[in-house]
Amino acid sequence: MKKMTKGAIVTGLGVALLLGGGGTLAVWNVEQTANAGTMAAGSMELTSSTGVWTSNLSNNPIPDITEYRIVPGEELTYTQQLEVGLEGDQLEATLSVDTSGVTNGFSNNLTLEDFMVTKAGAADAAITAYNGSADVEKGTYTASATLAFNADHQEDMNQELDLTQVTYVLDQKAPTPAN
Questions:
Q1: Domains of the chain as residue ranges with CATH
Q2: Quick one: which of 18, 19, 154, 159 has the fewest CB in 10 Å?
Q3: pLDDT of residue 16
Q4: d(CA 105, CA 149)
């Protein structure tokens, strides 16, 4: 072998030993913390108070709607407070009412079609009819429904309208990125 080749091999072995831990090879290293802060997720809450039924014939609260018997020509109104909680800088939501689980034995389709929600303290006291959903913000709402019983069919005697499956639904609106 030539001397130059032998020298290159020996030099290569020496460098390999130094890098492999057989010696020390100093390298510089510097770190800095990003200090990007702490992030927390927002939340949504929907709570409801106990609702109250009243009759247009007495204007008194009905203590137990399961024991009450509606008569033709009567209107019953249901009123309930809803509390919407939205925590999030860009959080927007819609409120809707799902009546798909309602079972109805009446021939005139007595349902919650006239469901309304009013924002408490709204300057114009605007009432929004719920035939879909409506935008909401954090705060107190009054939900109400009026059921008019205009039965003129004998088969409506002793029938039932089961409203135990009426559900309020608070959904986050999909965020829209800025252009």
A1: 43-172 (2.60.40)
A2: 154
A3: 65
A4: 13
